[in-house]
Amino acid sequence: VTFYFHMYGATIQTLNVQACAGSVCTTVWTRTGQQHASHTAPWTFATASLPVFTTKVRFSAVHSGSNLGDIAIDTIVVIRGGL
């Protein structure tokens, strides 16, 4: 799976990508903390390898409970058979 992400702000915690097969999910990619210097900084391209039997891809974001940060994802592409 490929995607772009942006993580800016004082209260950013974690962005995870999980690959799920049935009800079992495994984290295959993670970033923690502020990753961009400003809200206008260019988005970052990311790639995560998915196990063969993946049936669902799940993105999750964690924050500290304040509104002083944003995590965003865009242009998600899943390619069968890898890149």
Notes on the protein architecture:
With 83 residues, the chain is mainly β. It is 0% helix and 58% strand. It has a 3-stranded antiparallel beta sheet with strand order 4-1-6, with no helix packed on it. 12% of the residues are buried.
SSE arrangement:
Elements: E1 2-9, E2 12-21, E3 24-32, E4 44-47, E5 56-63, E6 69-77
Antiparallel strand pairs: 1-4, 1-6, 2-3, 2-5
Brief digest:
With 83 residues, this protein is mainly β. The protein has strands at residues 2-9, 12-21, 24-32, 44-47, 56-63, 69-77.
One letter per element, helices H and strands E, the order comes to EEEEEE
Order of strands across the main sheet: 4-1-6
Beta-strand proportion? over 45%
Task: State the separation between the terminal residues, measured CA to CA.
Answer: 9 Å
Keywords for this structure?
0% helix, mainly beta, 83 residues, globular, 3-stranded antiparallel sheet, 6 strands
